[in-house]
Design goal:
15% strand, seven-stranded parallel beta sheet, 7 strands, Rossmann fold, alpha/beta
Length: 256
Amino acid sequence: MSQSKPVAVVTGGAQGIGRAITGVLLQQGWQVMIADIDGEAGTECIHLFDNLGTVHFQPVDVSREDQVQQLMRTTHEKMGQVKLLVNNAGIANPFTGALEDLDLATWQRYLDVNLTGVFLCSKHAAEDLRNTRGSIINLGSTRAIQSEPDTEAYSASKGGVLALTHALAMSLGPDVRVNSISPGWIEVGEWQKASSRYQPFHSDEDHEQHPVGRMGKPDDVAGLVLWLASDLAGFVTGQDFVLDGGMSRKMVYKED
């Protein structure tokens, strides 16, 4: 067990945005525990990132308190006390069909994973984070503040993440800083496990509707995580950072 490098736990860290976060943290000298429900993706990540530093994988369903407790125990034993918790795990598909057809089990599963998982991981990492004066970074979504039809479960769960973020900041401060990132349209096709990877195609219009002139990349999110986890963000807590290339600020009128 290394004591020289800080320890990060990244939930949902084996694919997509989480995989990018894992890689960037390792490159910057962190030890990383990847917590992910997908064993195939987790094992692949170990082989992908092993040359960058100390990285471990623990299969976890973040909605299960017993599994979250075991995750934190294993991290502590193998790597040391947690200094950074990135709550990235979540059901990514926002569309659940018409409201009248949305069954309670589906609604509950979104809340269990996307929201309760953030609570459980934060709860069981809190002691370490207080000791290390660390931080928590939660992954929200711009869908917490704007919506398309048929996204009730996802939008509600991400809205809860934003509220939970500032509540945790008050409860854990001043020892622990807690912030959230709300990504917009981030293309993750090339960051999936090999069996699910795809080469994305997007039109010029897809890119141009973003004021920055392009769609988002997982590395964009990872860069903000790195800053929020650093001493440069030492005066930042209880905040949500919208990372969408300016898209949610763009006024749109229906053309005649």
